[in-house]
Every structure is written in C-alpha cells, then in structure tokens.
Amino acid sequence: MDSLSINSNRTGSNTNSTTLPNNNVNTPNLNLNNGFANANWTNLLNILQQLLQQFSNQYKPPASLTLNDNQNRNLRSLFNLQDSSPFTVSVLDKNGNGKLNAGDVAVMYGGITGGEVSRRVLTAADIKAINNTNNTQNANLTTLNTNEAKWKAATANGNYDYTVQFGGFTAPEYRRPITVSVNNGQVSGMTYADTGETVPADRQASVPSMSDLFQELRDAYKNNAAQINVTYDPTYGYPSSLYIDRSAMIADEEVSYSVSNVRVR
Prior knowledge:
Blueprint: E1 3-8, E2 16-21, H1 35-58, H2 69-78, E3 87-92, E4 105-110, E5 116-121, H3 124-131, H4 136-154, E6 160-166, E7 178-183, E8 186-192, H5 201-204, H6 210-222, E9 227-232, E10 239-245, E11 255-264
Antiparallel strand pairs: 1-2, 3-4, 4-5, 6-7, 6-11, 7-8, 9-10, 10-11
Helix pairs in contact: 2-3, 4-6
Pfam families: DUF6174
Region (Disordered): 1-26
Protein name: DUF6174 domain-containing protein
C-alpha cells in the first residue's frame, strides 16, 4: 500500500507531517452490451401489439336496438321510470341479429354524469312485457281518448257551463266549488257556486278547463303515476271525478277534482 505525506508549514507553528493510506480502488468497467435485452423487449412489444390488433378486429361492442314508442314505454316501466324521469334506457343486441331477444341487455343511463346507472339481462318474460301492446296503460289512454272525443263532439259549438271543485291538500278557499261559463270556446265568467260572487282574477288562472283535466289524466298515465282513479260521464264523456297520486314516495302531492252541473248549450 502506498502512502501519502501531507506537510503543513505555517509561520509561528510547528511543522507536522501526516501520512495517510492511499487506497487505490479499481472500479470495474460496467460496459454492458444491451443489444440482446433491447431485442427481446422489441419482440415482446411487437407480439403485444399484434394481440391487441387481433382483439380489436374481433371484438365489436353490441349495437343498440331501435324500439317503437310502445316498446320504449314498456321498457321504461321495467325500470320503474316515468316519462319525466331524467334517465334513458337502451337495449344492447347481444347476439347481433337485430331483434329483441332474451339475453339482450337493457342499460339505463343518466344521473349527474349521464353514464351507465344500471343494467339488466332481459328474460323471456321481460321480452313479452316489452312487446305487449294490450297493456293497461294503453287501454286507459284509449278510454281517455274515446271520452275526450265524445266531449269535443258534444261541445262542438263551444257553449257550455260546468262546476269544478278541487279536492287536494290546499287552503279551504281553493277547495270552494267554482262554476265556469264558456261561450264560443272561450271562458266568459267564473263564479263561486256557493255564493255567486265572481272569482278573483288571480284565482281564475288556476281553475282547470275541461281540456286541462283530460291532459292531467293523459300525463298521469304516460308518467306511470302510482294511482289513477277516474269516472267518465256516460253521456258527454267528461271526467266527473278524478284522483291522481303521482308518487307513492311523496306525501300530500295527490290531486283530485270533481265536475258537476254540466250544461251544454
């Protein structure tokens, strides 16, 4: 082992000599040839790219089936959705035959992101329900349309009177019966049936017309209201009484009306 001498000469001080060991460490020359490793990585990446390409060529996501209005309405009913619910439902054609079959997948989208919320593999019973054209909702809408047409035919000249009373959860003042007079299709007067006094203008705006009552029923059917009870007049077709509970989960949002003293002029 060689030694290294260090002399320190300073004015006014003693001269000291220190000998330190000189360790000569020979660092090995790590000159690795990475050619073989690089070649292996390149081959591996090429294989992975080929596999991904084959997978993308073979896999095609199932297309969405095109359904008619009745099928879409029944499909939404499977998910307990109303027409006004901010969700959409589509059916993925799993076997690619372009037809609605058991095994196809119904997917509901919506929420904050608009993405997938839930999915359901359709059974044979689901397919039957979706394709059903004689369901209760359609029957109720047909009955409504028939009675509305009867009312329009009976009042073609636009001259009639009726008394309407609201029966929902509201102040007693808004539950008073009101007589409405219509001439040439336009409301010509509104009076309280119990006193004969004129209904204030701000109150008149909330009094439903016959068209409003029919539309209220139609919306309730299309939106799958929790409960709908209606009685139509056998002669004129107007709804003499109706009760609508839009949601069983919400309290005190039910509405009801009764119509009486109808006089067609």
